[in-house]
Design brief:
The protein is of the alpha/beta class. The chain has a domain of about 170 residues: TIM Barrel. It is built from 7 helices and 9 strands, in the order E-E-E-H-E-H-E-E-H-H-E-H-E-H-E-H. A 9-stranded mixed sheet has the order 3-1-2-4-5-6-7-8-9. It is globular and about 45 Å long. The structure holds iron/sulfur cluster (SF4). The site of iron/sulfur cluster has 13 residues, from loops.
C-alpha cells in the first residue's frame, strides 16, 4: 500500500526513510563509470507506470535513518561520489542537512530528481529527469484501481517554473529523458523551448526498460541525439549487472 507523503517521520528535519544504500558504479549521465555510493530515499510524489524502483515510489519501504548515520556511512565507504536518489529526494526537508553533511566531508554530490520540487542546497551535479507523457500510469493499472495516481501524476509531472528555478540555482546539471519511441521527441523539444540556459550537451536520452536496448532502439536514439547535439545515455549498470537491486 502506498504511504502518504506526509508521514510524520519523513517530514522531520533530521531523518529520512531510506529504501537502500549501496556502493557501485554510476550507470547514467555525465559521471558514468565513476565509483559511487547511492542513498535511495523512499517516497515520491509521482507514480511512473514503468518506475524501476517501485520500492521507493508505489510501495515505499525502508527504515527511517538519522541523517548523521547516512553521512557517516557514506564517508566510511571511501568513495568520493554520493548519489542522492529516490523516489524523489527533494520532497524531504532532511535532504538539506544530508547534502550539507556530505559536502562538509568533501564528497561530490549528485542529486537525482524529476524536477517538480525546488530546494537550494549543497549539490555538485543536479541530475534532472522530467517525466514525459510516456510515464503516466495506464488506465486500469492494478496498482491504481481508482485512477487517482494517474491524474495526480499527470498534473504534477512537468512544472516549468520549478525546472527553471532549479536551472537558475544549479550551474552543473544534466537532463535525462526516458524515451520509449521517437514520438517522445516533440514533447522534449517543447519543454526545452520553454526553459532558459539549457545547453544541448546537457540533454541526454535514455532508453526506457530494464534490459539492454535493442540495436534498433540504440539506432534511433543515437540518430536523434546526433541531429540535436544531445547525448545518448545507456545505463551502464543494466549492461553490467542487469536489473538488480543494489547495483
Ligand atoms: S519519479 Fe522516479 S521514483 Fe518516482 S515514480 Fe517516477 S521513476 Fe519512480
Amino acid at each position: 500500500m502506498s504511504l502518504p507523503l506526509s508521514r510524520p517521520e519523513t517530514a522531520q528535519a533530521d531523518r529520512l526513510r531510506v529504501s537502500e544504500t549501496f556502493t557501485s558504479v554510476q550507470g547514467e549521465g555525465k559521471l558514468t563509470g565513476i565509483p559511487s555510493h547511492f542513498v535511495r530515499i523512499s517516497g515520491c510524489n509521482l507514480r511512473c507506470g514503468w518506475c524501476d524502483t517501485p520500492y521507493a515510489s508505489w510501495d515505499p519501504e525502508g527504515d527511517v535513518v538519522p541523517v548523521e548515520d547516512l553521512v557517516r556511512g557514506a564517508a566510511a565507504t571511501g568513495v568520493r561520489h554520493v548519489v542522492l536518489t529516490g523516489g524523489e529526494p527533494m520532497l524531504f526537508p532532511a535532504i538539506e542537512p544530508l547534502a550539507g553533511g556530505l559536502c562538509a566531508a568533501g564528497i561530490h554530490i549528485t542529486i537525482e530528481t524529476a524536477g517538480t520540487v525546488c530546494r537550494d542546497m549543497a549539490c555538485d551535479l543536479l541530475s534532472l529527469s522530467p517525466k514525459l507523457a510516456n510515464s503516466t500510469p495506464r488506465a486500469g493499472d492494478p496498482r491504481d484501481p481508482d485512477g487517482a495516481w494517474r491524474s495526480r501524476h499527470e498534473s504534477r509531472r512537468l512544472n516549468v517554473g520549478v525546472l527553471q528555478s532549479l536551472l537558475d540555482i544549479y550551474p552543473e546539471r544534466q537532463f535525462k529523458f526516458v524515451v520509449g519511441s521517437p514520438g517522445d521527441l516533440p514533447e522534449i523539444e517543447a519543454l526545452l523551448s520553454k526553459l532558459r540556459g539549457v545547453a544541448p550537451g546537457d540533454v541526454m536520452l535514455m532508453p526506457e526498460g530494464v534490459r539492454p536496448p535493442t540495436e534498433a532502439t540504440s539506432r534511433w536514439i543515437g540518430e536523434a541525439c546526433a541531429r540535436r547535439g544531445w547525448r545518448y545515455c545507456r545505463r551502464l549498470h543494466i549492461d553490467l549487472f542487469g536489473n538488480v537491486r543494489g547495483t
